Amino acid sequence: MNDPALIALEPSAGGTLTDRLFDALQRAIVEGEMPQGSKISEPELARRHGVSRGSLREAIARLEACKLVERKPNLGARVVELSAEQLIEIFQLREVLEGMAARLAAQAMTDAEIDALAALLEQHGQQIEQEQGQAYFQKQGDLDFHFRIVQGSKNRQLIGLLCEDLYHLLRMYRVQFGMRSKRCRQAFEEHQYLLSALRSRDPEMAELVMRQHVRSSLRNLEQALS
Q1: How far is CA 109 from CA 173, 190, 192, in A?
Q2: What is the signed CA dihedral for 183, 187, 190, 194, rounded to 10 degrees?
């Protein structure tokens, strides 16, 4: 694991210490400050940050629930590291589920929600220009284009799977392998095509564009891992 001192706790904003620990560790894992497969030392983290082992253990348990941390016999807690085969399987699942989410969103999103999505995409475009086309960082939750579309599907089962169960794990690979690469401009253009399909209320086209977009992301990831 990288130096635990790099994991900065945000000033309290009403959340509990466990919440702040969870947020800080999640951010460090997703952004690669805590490398995949690295050991999580509870005593070391507790000592570095002056927190109780109990609060830290609760935060790590929540990270396990998000599939960012796994425990192995005699090895303790480690940042998850997926094999290429496991990753391909998850992206295959993501293609189907996000394709369905886009199809439903084309029918279920309100005009106001689509306008808000367009405004978000405009912000993303400005950011890409500032990065000279070399990075496309999307913050999590409502600032994430994909998150917004899944929410727009209005399907609670899809939302549970893609915005909760698999979200942080997928985001980790998107951040570390997709958001700073030559694919940035292409990914942004694909988002624009998807927005157009949503505006046109074309479920078939929305699903097709999303599925192609996810397949392109997988190809980019496979190249990065090879």
Answers
A1: 27, 19, 16
A2: 170
Tell me how far apart the alpha carbons of residues 4 and 159 are, in angstroms, rounded to a whole number: 33
Answer for the pair 145, 105: CB distance below 8 angstroms, yes or no: no
C-alpha to C-alpha distances, 163 to 22, 83, 97, 200, nearest whole angstrom: 17, 22, 11, 25
Interatomic CA distance for residues 56 and 63, integer angstroms: 11
For residue 186, what are its two tokens?
């292409």
| 47 Cβ contact list (under 8 Å, min separation 6) | none
Report the distance separating Cα 17 and Cα 129, nearest Å. Answer: 37
Q: Is 171 helix (H, G, I), strand (E, B) or coil?
A: helix
DSSP state of 6: G
Grouped pLDDT means (10 residues each) for the chain, 226 residues: 49 72 89 89 86 91 92 87 87 94 98 96 87 62 88 96 87 72 83 97 98 91 78
pTM of the model: 0.81
